[in-house]
From TrEMBL:
InterPro entries attached to this UniProt entry: Ala-tRNA-synth_IIc_core, Alanyl-tRNA_Editing_Enzymes, Thr/Ala-tRNA-synth_IIc_edit, Transl_B-barrel_sf, tRNA_SAD
Cofactor names: Zn(2+)
Protein's name in the database: Alanyl-tRNA editing protein
UniProt KW keywords: Metal-binding, Zinc
Length: 244
């Protein structure tokens, strides 16, 4: 299946990460989830949470508080909100503050990943994020002296460099021919995926990724490494905060 489809839903956010409003038709609906013909709501994945927002239809509003992946892409309505029936035309809006914060945070994590891989050769073993805060786990056997400060300074130098962040979709064979395209200790791209979405912080970090990102590193803001934790022998967790 093409990366810009999930079930019957065309995923608009993968080709236009700045899109915040769109029109669609309801294909199926229930209190457990609403399926749209097209959607710019990021449904969550790769550590990035799902978008929030609203659907407006026939003079009423349905708040969207999450998403669920299955045979279709289901948008989760707020409990008690009216549900548009199948066939209804809706105008949708993604909550801009939340999405923009998550884009900056996600791109910040890719900068962190690129710096730690480049300077210490460590791969990612896990990660998660909320708006402006995140954590990333690495297979890092030892923490060298001055590691926290060195990583933070290097990340902010890459942000200040204003590196372009490009997104492209490649055939699987072509994508996996890129050196170090998988920056996780385990390859998380399913074997049946024929097209791979690649996010490239030009000159720093290139990896398979399905999330949303800002256009240049300068849009991230500033990264602070707030804490380093041991997660068992040979594994470290770095917590970061993103700010203006």
């Amino acid at each position: 299946m093409s990366v810009d489809l999930h079930g019957r839903t065309q995923r608009l956010e993968l080709s236009d990460q700045n899109l915040r409003s769109f029109e669609a038709v309801v294909l199926a609906s229930a209190p457990e989830g609403i399926v749209l013909s097209r959607s710019a709501f990021y449904p969550g994945g790769g550590g990035q949470p799902a978008d929030h927002g609203v659907l407006v239809w026939q003079g009423v509003e349905t708040r969207i508080v999450g998403a669920r992946k299955g045979d279709d892409l289901y948008l989760i309505p707020a409990e008690g909100d009216p549900i548009p029936p199948a066939g209804t035309e809706v105008r949708a809006a993604v909550a801009d503050d939340r999405r923009s914060a998550l884009m900056r945070t996600h791109s910040g994590l890719h900068v962190l990943c690129g710096v730690v891989f480049r300077d210490y050769g460590s791969l990612v073993t896990g990660g998660n994020m909320e708006p402006f805060s995140a954590r990333m786990d690495f297979n890092l056997p030892e923490v060298p002296p001055g590691f926290k400060e060195a990583v933070e300074d290097a990340c902010n130098a890459e942000i200040a460099a204003g590196r372009r962040i490009d997104v492209r979709v490649l055939p699987r064979e072509e994508a996996f021919a890129i050196p170090d395209i998988i920056r996780t200790a385990t390859n998380l791209v399913p074997e049946d995926v024929e097209e791979v979405r690649v996010v490239d912080i030009v000159g720093l970090d290139t990896q398979a990724d399905g999330g949303t990102h800002v256009a240049t590193t300068s849009q991230i803001g500033r990264i602070k490494v707030t804490k380093i934790e041991s997660k068992g022998k040979g594994f470290r967790r770095l917590r970061i905060a993103v700010s203006d």
